[in-house]
C-alpha cells in the first residue's frame, strides 16, 4: 500500500518508520498513535526531502515540544551566527527550528538546515517571498505567493506558517472592531497590506486547495497562522481573533479531507484568566487539531524578561491542551536575539513544557523530577548536576560559593534539613553548632 502523508498512512493502517520512532520516544502504543494521527489529533511533521530529521510527534497525549525562531534580518545578517544558534538550540533539546529570515541568501540558510539539522524545520513563506522577488509588495502576484510555498516544500521544510485565515471577511471585521495594537503578526500585516492595496482576496485563502496539493506531495504540515493574534492584553480574545480561528477550523477540515497534516497557531498576548478558555475554544472550533502557541505573554510591561512572561503563559496553555510552544527570549520586542538570549529562551520554555507535561499526566513525565528528588535526598551533588535542565549553570552556581562542608550548600550549612533528617532517621545525633 502506498501513501503520500503520515496522516494518509495512519488512515490506511500503514506503520511508517517515523511512527515507530515517535511511538518509542513517547511511550505510546502504535495502535493509540495511529488512531490519534488518523483523527488529526497527532501529527509527525516530516517532509520527504528532509533526510536528516529525527522525527517527533506533536499533539494529544504526547510530550510538549518547543520551537526556536531564528534567522537573518536587514540589521543582522551573520549566517555563521545563525548556524551557531541552530547548533546550540539542538544541543539544548529544541525539537523544532523556524527560519524567519527576512534578508540575504535565505535559500542557502534554509537548505543548510534541511540538509543537516535533525530538528523539525519550519518557515514562513510570506517573508521569503518579499525577499526573493525583491520588488514592491503590490507587484507580487497571487501565483508568485503560491510559488514560494512550493519552493519551500521542495527545499525540505517540514512545516510552514501560512496566513490563510485573514480573508476579506476577517479583514472587514478587523477594521470595524478597532484594536489597541492593530495587527502585530509580520506575515499578517504583510498580507493585509497586500489585500488592501490590490483589492484582491488573500491568495493563501483563495488558492488553499493548490497549497494542499503541494503539502500532500511533499508531506508538509500546514501551520495555520494567526494573523490576528492579540499583540497586547487588551486585544485578547476579541472579534478578529475569534473570527480568524473560525476560518482556520473550516480550513482544517478541508486539509484533513486531503490527508494533509495540520496544526493551529494561537495567541500572542493574553491575561492568565483567559488562557484556559482559549484552549477550549480552539479544541472546539478546530476539532482538537494540535495547537501551537507563542507564549502567551501574560503581561505587557516586562521587556527584557519576556522569556519569563511567556513561560508563565506557555505552562498554562500547555497544561490546558496546547502541545507546541514557541520560545520567547529576553530580546523579544527589543532586538534580534543573540546566542545567550536563545539559551535563556529555550530553558524557560523547556521548563514551561515540562511543568505542563506533569500537570497533563504525560507518561513518565514526572520520572525526571523523582530522580532529582532522590538525588537531593541523598545529597548527591554530581547526580543533581546531571539531572539539571541546565547542568552548566547549576555547576557554576555551586562552584561560585563553596560551603565549609561538601555535603551542604552555602545557604544552609549545618542547618540543612535534608542532612539533619537523614541523620536523625538513621539514629544519629544531630548537633548543629558543635560539629
What does the secondary structure layout of this molecule look like, with pairings?
Blueprint: H1 6-11, H2 17-26, H3 30-39, E1 42-43, E2 58-59, E3 65-70, H4 79-91, E4 96-99, H5 106-116, E5 120-123, H6 125-133, H7 142-154, E6 159-162, H8 168-176, H9 186-198, H10 203-206, H11 208-218, E7 221-224, H12 239-257, E8 262-266, H13 272-285, E9 291-294, H14 306-319, E10 324-326, H15 339-360, H16 367-377, H17 381-387, H18 391-399, H19 417-425
Parallel strand pairs: 3-4, 3-10, 4-5, 5-6, 6-7, 7-8, 8-9, 9-10
Antiparallel strand pairs: 1-2
Helix pairs in contact: 4-15, 6-7, 7-11, 8-12, 13-14, 14-15, 16-17, 17-18
Textual characterization of the structure:
The protein folds into two domains: 6-360, Radical SAM ThiC family, central domain (TIM Barrel); 401-434, no CATH class. The strands form two sheets. It has an eight-stranded parallel beta barrel with strand order 3-4-5-6-7-8-9-10, surrounded by six helices. Strands 1-2 form a two-stranded antiparallel sheet. It is an alpha/beta fold and 435 residues long. It contains 19 helices and ten strands. The chain has helices at residues 6-11, 17-26, 30-39, 79-91, 106-116, 125-133, 142-154, 168-176, 186-198, 203-206, 208-218, 239-257, 272-285, 306-319, 339-360, 367-377, 381-387, 391-399, 417-425, and strands spanning 42-43, 58-59, 65-70, 96-99, 120-123, 159-162, 221-224, 262-266, 291-294, 324-326. The termini are far apart. Substrate binds at residues 69, 98, 127, 163, 185-187, 226-229, 265, 292. Its cofactor is [4Fe-4S] cluster.
Amino acid at each position: 500500500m502506498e501513501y503520500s502523508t503520515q496522516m494518509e498512512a495512519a488512515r490506511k493502517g500503514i506503520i511508517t518508520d517515523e511512527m515507530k520512532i515517535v511511538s518509542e520516544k513517547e511511550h505510546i502504543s502504535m495502535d493509540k498513535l495511529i488512531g490519534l494521527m488518523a483523527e488529526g489529533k497527532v501529527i509527525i511533521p516530516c517532509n520527504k526531502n528532509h533526510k536528516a530529521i529525527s522525527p517527533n510527534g506533536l499533539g494529544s497525549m504526547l510530550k510538549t515540544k518547543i520551537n526556536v525562531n531564528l534567522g537573518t534580518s536587514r540589521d543582522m545578517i551573520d549566517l555563521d551566527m545563525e548556524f551557531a544558534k541552530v547548533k546550540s538550540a539542538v544541543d539544548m533539546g529544541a525539537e523544532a527550528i523556524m527560519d524567519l529570515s527576512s534578508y540575504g541568501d535565505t535559500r542557502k540558510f534554509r537548505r543548510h538546515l534541511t540538509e543537516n539539522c535533525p530538528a523539525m524545520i519550519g518557515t514562513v513563506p510570506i517573508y521569503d517571498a518579499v525577499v526573493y522577488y525583491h520588488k514592491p509588495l503590490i507587484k507580487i502576484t497571487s501565483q508568485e505567493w503560491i510559488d514560494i510555498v512550493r519552493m519551500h516544500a521542495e527545499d525540505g521544510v517540514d512545516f510552514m506558517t501560512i496566513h490563510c485565515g485573514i480573508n476579506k471577511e476577517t479583514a472587514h471585521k478587523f477594521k470595524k472592531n478597532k484594536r489597541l495594537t492593530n495587527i502585530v503578526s509580520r506575515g499578517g500585516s504583510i498580507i493585509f497590506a497586500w489585500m488592501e492595496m490590490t483589492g484582491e482576496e488573500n491568495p493563501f485563502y483563495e488558492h488553499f486547495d493548490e497549497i494542499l496539493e503541494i503539502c500532500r506531495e511533499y508531506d508538509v504540515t500546514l501551520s495555520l497562522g494567526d494573523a490576528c493574534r492579540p499583540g497586547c492584553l487588551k486585544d485578547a480574545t476579541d472579534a478578529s481573533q475569534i473570527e480568524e480561528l473560525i476560518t482556520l477550523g473550516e480550513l482544517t477540515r478541508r486539509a484533513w479531507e486531503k490527508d494533509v497534516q495540520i496544526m493551529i497557531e494561537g495567541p500572542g498576548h493574553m491575561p492568565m484568566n483567559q488562557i484556559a478558555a482559549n484552549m477550549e475554544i480552539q479544541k472546539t472550533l478546530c476539532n482538537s487539531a494540535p495547537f501551537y502557541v507563542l507564549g502567551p505573554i501574560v503581561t505587557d510591561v516586562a521587556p527584557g524578561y519576556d522569556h519569563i512572561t511567556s513561560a508563565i503563559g506557555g505552562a498554562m496553555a500547555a497544561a490546558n491542551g496546547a502541545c507546541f510552544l514557541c520560545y520567547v527570549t529576553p530580546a523579544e520586542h527589543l532586538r534580534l536575539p543573540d546566542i545567550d538570549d536563545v539559551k535563556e529562551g529555550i530553558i524557560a520554555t523547556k521548563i514551561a513544557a515540562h511543568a505542563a507535561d506533569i500537570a497533563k499526566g504525560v507518561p513518565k513525565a514526572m520520572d525526571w523530577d523523582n530522580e532529582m528528588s532522590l538525588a537531593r535526598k541523598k545529597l548527591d551533588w554530581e547526580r543533581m548536576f546531571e539531572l539539571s535542565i541546565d547542568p552548566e549553570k547549576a555547576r557554576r552556581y555551586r562552584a561560585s560559593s563553596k560551603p565549609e562542608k561538601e555535603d551542604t550548600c552555602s545557604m544552609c550549612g549545618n542547618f540543612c534539613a535534608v542532612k539533619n533528617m537523614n541523620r536523625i532517621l538513621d539514629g544519629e545525633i544531630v548537633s548543629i553548632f558543635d560539629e
